[in-house]
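Fold it.
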Amino acid sequence: MKLTVFGATGGVGRHVVRQALDSGHEVTAVVRDPARLPVPAHPRLQVLTIPDLTHHEPLLPAVTGRDAVISAVGPSSNAQARTTHIAGTALRAIVTAMDQAGVRRLSAVSAAPVGPVAEGEGPLTRAVVFPLLRRALRDTYADLAAMEEAISASDTGWTVVRPPKLTDKPHTGTYRRVIGGNVPGGMTISRADVADALLTCLDDPATEGHVVGIAT
């Protein structure tokens, strides 16, 4: 498969690039700074430097002729940028470029607190943990909610993956998954396993047009 990965230098994105190459895919990694991509040169890896993801025209070369797109774009760590919903703006540009290039399949990472509390979740998480997270990181989750809105309003065959707290533990490929909701009691998952989920969903038609909760 020919894949384009946005957010390729991030904590999840770099794992997506590595795992996609290991699985035999051709990868176009879109980066702001190629020096930050910790993946060695590879005959099936193309690195494109595109500093600005807010307009679709510069993104067309990155998605044209590709089979699918993976977005590991996350909210900005800059407070001023967060108020502009940078992830939402980027995904609107990405899906517009995909539409013009005729690329349909999209897998994107979001976060569990953007969605509703999982059915069967414990009262502590329901009444305390999620409300505190949403209050403390309201700008971050507002940005991700804007991103999900842009994706769901698009004509792409999309899947949104919602993980809980991310860790740097190794890739296992073993985690729980709930289509259409969050994982009850799901507190953490490794960035490497999030990358696994983003890639796996591309080949799973059951996830198309749905959010997918994942957790260990």
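The mean pLDDT is 90.
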